[in-house]
Design brief:
The protein is mainly beta and 299 residues long. 14% of the residues lie in helices and 35% in strands.
Length: 299
C-alpha cells in the first residue's frame, strides 16, 4: 500500500554516528537557537533514516499559530527534482535565460523539473510532468525556498519550459485540508476517500472510494478484496464517493452475495462477489468529530 514519504525537501545530515541512534531531537546553533528538527524519514522499501528538517519549513505554520489561527497552508501539489543548468540548456532554454540564471546564482545554477502532479489537485491539467519551472511570480525558481510562495498564494504565475518553449501559466494552488473525514467498515474491510499518499502515486482516480485495509479471514479477504482497490459499483449502483458507497452497502441484506466492481492499483477492472455476515462483520461508519475526545465517533 502507498505510504507517506517526504518530498520537495532539503535535509540536514550530521557527521556524527551518535546522532543516528536518536529518532527525534532539535539541532541548535552556538546561541541555542533551533535550526532544524531531527526526525525519522521513510526511504525506499520502508527503510528508515534520520535527518534534520530546517525550521524555515515550519515558518508559515508558526506565524499562523502566533496569530491564534489554525494553519491552512496551500500547495501546488507537485513533486519536483533539481535539474542542472547544463541539462536545462539541452532541453531548449535560451542562452539569454541561462545567462540570467548563472548571473543570479549564488551557489548552484539549477532549476527544478516537475516529476509528478498530484491527482485531483488544481494544478493537474495545467502543469505537466517534465515541465521545467523557470520562474514563479516573476522570480527565478532556483531554490526550494523560491517555491514557498505557494503556501500563502491562491494563484501563481509560473513560467515553464515545455517542448523547448517558455509558457506563462496561471496556476491555482490547492488547500491542504483533512482528506479523510469518514471511514466505512463493511464485510471486514475499511473504505474511505483516497488520502494524500494515494493521490501522490496515481495519475487517475477511478473512484472516490478506496480500500485501505482488509481484515485477515474476513469475507472481503476470502472473496478477493485487497488493499489498494478502488470500488466503483456495489450491486450495479455507482459509488463515486464514500457517501454513495455507505448508502449502497447499508442497502445490502445479511447473508447476501453482493457484486462489487473494483479497479486494482494496477488499473485492472474486476468484479468480486462478497457475502455479508453482519453477526461477525457488521457495517459501521466512523466520522471525524472535533467534539469527541478521540476526534472520531461512530454513527
Amino acid at each position: 500500500p502507498p505510504r507517506w514519504r517526504s518530498i520537495n525537501t532539503e535535509v540536514v545530515q550530521l557527521d556524527n554516528p551518535t546522532a543516528l541512534n536518536y529518532g527525534f531531537g532539535v539541532i541548535v546553533d552556538d546561541n541555542g537557537d533551533a535550526q532544524a528538527l531531527w526526525l525519522e524519514y521513510i526511504k525506499a522499501k520502508k527503510n528508515m533514516c534520520v535527518s534534520g528538517m530546517p525550521v524555515q519549513t515550519l515558518i508559515p505554520a508558526l506565524r499562523a499559530l502566533q496569530r491564534d489561527e489554525e494553519p491552512e497552508p496551500r500547495s501546488l501539489k507537485v513533486e519536483i527534482q533539481p535539474l542542472a543548468i547544463v541539462k536545462v540548456r539541452q532541453a531548449g532554454l535560451s542562452k539569454e535565460r541561462c545567462d540570467e540564471i548563472q548571473s543570479a546564482a549564488s551557489s548552484r545554477s539549477q532549476l527544478y523539473q516537475i516529476k509528478r502532479v498530484e491527482a485531483l489537485s488544481k494544478a493537474q491539467g495545467v502543469l505537466q510532468e517534465l515541465d521545467i519551472v523557470v520562474s514563479i511570480n516573476g522570480k527565478l525558481a532556483m531554490t526550494l525556498g523560491d517555491f514557498d510562495v505557494q503556501f500563502t498564494s491562491p494563484s501563481l504565475e509560473i513560467v515553464v519550459l515545455r517542448d523547448s518553449l517558455e509558457h506563462t501559466l496561471q496556476v491555482e494552488t490547492t488547500e491542504s485540508k483533512q482528506e479523510v473525514r469518514k471511514v466505512v467498515s463493511w464485510a471486514g474491510a475499511l473504505f474511505h476517500a483516497p488520502h494524500k499518499t494515494v493521490l501522490q502515486q496515481t495519475n487517475t482516480v477511478p473512484s472516490g472510494v478506496y480500500c485501505a485495509d482488509v481484515a485477515f479471514s474476513s469475507f472481503s479477504y476470502e472473496y478477493g478484496m485487497e488493499e489498494g482497490h478502488w470500488v466503483t459499483h456495489v450491486n450495479d449502483v455507482a459509488t463515486p464517493d464514500i457517501d454513495s458507497f455507505e448508502r449502497a452497502v447499508n442497502a445490502c441484506q445479511d447473508n447476501e452475495h453482493v457484486r462489487v466492481k473494483v479497479i486494482s492499483s494496477k488499473a485492472r477492472p474486476n468484479v468480486l462477489t462478497i457475502k455479508t455476515c453482519y453477526h461477525y462483520w457488521p457495517t459501521r461508519t466512523l466520522v471525524k468529530d472535533q467534539e469527541s475526545a478521540e476526534g472520531w465517533r461512530y454513527v
